[in-house]
Amino acid sequence: NYDGWYNSSLKIIGFILISAAVTAIFSVWKSSPWWLMYLFLLVWGADSGAYFVGRKLGKNKLAPNVSPNKSVEGLYGGIFTAMLIVVTVEVLYLDLTLAQHILFLILSVITVFSSVLGDLFESMIKRRAGIKDSGRILPGHGGVLDRIDSLLAAAPIFAAGMYILKFIGVDL
Predict the structure, then answer these.
(1) What is the pLDDT along the chain (172 residues), one digit of tens a residue?
(2) 46 contacts 112 by C-beta, under 8 angstroms
(3) By residue range, what is the domain housing residue 16?
(4) Total domains, the chain
(5) Residue 113 is assigned to a structural domain of this protein
(6) Residue 89: inside a domain
């Protein structure tokens, strides 16, 4: 059912999205390699939690027309895993006031939800294009893009959030 939407303008959109993500990742790294590792841990932890909980307990489809294997239970598992990471990082490495804690939690939750949306967006593009894998390097795993789609969406959000926090005087 090709309807003409999959065309060369997607290359421009892809270039913009990937440029934003790479710029954001570089910006976070320049700010602190530690924060970049936190971003990776947060996004990949949420992905892993969603995958394992969804495989084990997933019954209710999250977006069946976009990605039929993703479940609401998987989303909850990803959020729970991400919150474990946030709390662990806060307890072990950060000394935050209550206000800073709340802002850090909000930034982390928004980052996780943006990673989920990035994953769904990439799945939607592949489904509309009739493509199962986005590459041949990792056959059967959706391709390389499936390994980084969440990070591509989450990195600009996290970087912008860190910038906004710093702008309002919250230096984490």
Answers:
(1) 555 666 678 788 889 989 999 999 999 999 999 999 999 999 999 999 998 999 999 888 888 777 778 899 999 999 999 999 999 999 999 988 899 999 999 999 999 999 999 888 887 877 776 666 555 554 544 455 666 888 999 999 999 999 999 999 887 7
(2) yes
(3) 9-167
(4) 1
(5) yes
(6) yes
